[in-house]
Design a protein that fits this description.
Blueprint lengths: L7 E6 L4 H15 L4 E7 L1 H10 L7 E4 L21 H10 L4 H15 L5 E5 L5 H8 L2 E6 L3 H12 L10 E2 L10 E2 L14 H14 L4 E4 L7 H10 L5 E3 L14 H12 L19 H4 L9 H12 L3 H20 L2 E2 L2 E2 L1 H16 L9
Parallel strand pairs: 1-2, 1-4, 2-3, 4-5, 5-8, 8-9
Antiparallel strand pairs: 6-7, 10-11
Helix pairs in contact: 4-5, 6-8, 11-12
Family: Belongs to the UDP-glycosyltransferase family.
GO molecular function: glycosyltransferase activity
Keywords: Glycosyltransferase, Transferase
């Protein structure tokens, strides 16, 4: 991999979960296309191994390890990712991540010593909000990359920051700091957002990290300009008017000349190994649990083949609602492609937002060495 010693370094630190590592890697790939910057992804040793296997051979993205011993925190050996961890161990990993502050600071000092100047910025995960402290101590511009869609993530932040919402028995409630949002139905709220005794520590962790995030120098949202603007307004308001850039869509699928056709074929092959009209569950890994009814063997409420078939038929219908849904989907697809398009004097909204972000980060804290030097 190219060393890039004379290039400005952008340091990225995703949380240790597949649903966080993947979008950060996609963002790193997009940043890599910009000349003059070295991209360094920081993580624990086993996650770095996984990331290395996901990089294309000609990449210049650097990977940097920080030490982590799972057993020091009561976790099973080699537990550096939430994948396949129980809910209890997954939360232990979340709490353990707060102890990475010193290793990260030491790494950033080493990078500065090696390159002769501090990184131009840190892009951190929303679950690693404490990195704001490290960035401020070292005089480095800090930003938070929120990989979810702006509107839904604004709701996620708001519910996490307002635990008092759960002190009433109302079936639905409004978000006090997000009046633009629709009312929230208690019964439809995911379990990890319900404030119960068992979730108190989880809420406390999220609240700590999200409060740090709101003190970052900027927010990067995986949102397309013009879609979900209420979410953008929420984060702008909560950060006191700091920049909120909509840089979406961030996805390796949107990188020019890259398609996952081979993966698509493997999915089809896997599906073809199952009998016709079989029930299909989708289990979204370690951050989501199978619902109580399924876990207890009660499948009376499970959506079955007939219902799935009727929905597919409705969507594929060339008239009525099916045509309307497909038309909307095509329109959104066009917006996504336009947002990242660049060339012949044209720059999409995501390209412009990324330009503004990098320009701001570069000019905000131009120091050869941070204060600790």
């Amino acid at each position: 991999m190219a060393e890039g010693r004379n290039q400005s370094n952008i340091v990225m630190f995703p949380f240790m979960a597949q649903g966080h590592l993947i979008p950060f890697l996609a963002l790193a790939r997009q940043l890599e296309l910009r000349k003059g910057y070295t991209i360094t992804i920081v993580n624990t040793p086993l996650n770095i191994q996984r990331l290395r296997s996901s990089l294309p051979p000609e990449t210049c993205i650097r990977l940097a390890e920080i030490p982590f011993c799972a057993t020091d925190y009561g976790l099973p050996p080699d537990s550096e990712n939430t994948y396949m961890l129980s809910d209890v161990d997954g939360f232990c990993l979340l709490e353990a991540s707060e102890n990475l502050e010193s290793p990260l600071k030491n790494l950033l000092m080493e990078i500065t010593e090696r390159d002769g100047y501090a990184p131009v910025c840190i892009i951190s995960d929303m679950f690693l909000g404490w990195t704001v402290k490290v960035a401020n101590e070292l005089g480095i511009f800090h930003s938070v990359f929120i990989a979810g869609v702006g509107y839904s993530m604004a709701i996620y932040f708001s519910i996490s920051l307002n635990t008092s919402l759960w002190q009433t028995n109302d079936e639905e409630f409004s978000l006090p700091d997000f009046p633009e949002a629709s009312k929230i139905h208690r019964a439809r709220t995911p379990n990890d957002l319900k404030y119960m005794d068992a979730a108190e520590a989880w809420f406390g962790f999220r609240k700590r990290q999200f409060m740090y995030c709101l003190h970052s120098d900027a927010i990067l949202l995986n949102t397309i300009e013009g879609l979900g603007q209420n979410g953008v307004k929420y984060f702008s308001r909560k950060t006191g008017g700091k920049p909120v850039w909509t840089i979406g869509p961030v996805s390796t699928l949107m990188i020019k000349n890259e398609r996952l056709s081979s993966n698509a074929n493997s999915y089809s092959e896997w599906l073809n190994t199952h009998p016709p009209a079989s029930v299909l569950y989708v289990y979204f890994g370690s951050q989501s649990s199978v619902c109580f009814e399924l876990r207890e063997g009660n499948t009376s409420e499970v959506i079955r083949h007939d219902h799935i078939a009727s929905v597919i038929k409705m969507v594929m219908d060339k008239t009525g609602k099916g045509e309307e849904l497909r038309s909307k989907a095509h329109a959104i697809r066009e917006k996504m492609e336009e947002a990242i398009r660049e060339g012949e004097g044209f720059k999409g909204s995501a390209v412009k937002a990324m330009d503004e972000f990098i320009s701001t980060a570069t000019s905000a804290k131009e120091v050869s060495y941070p204060p600790w030097k």
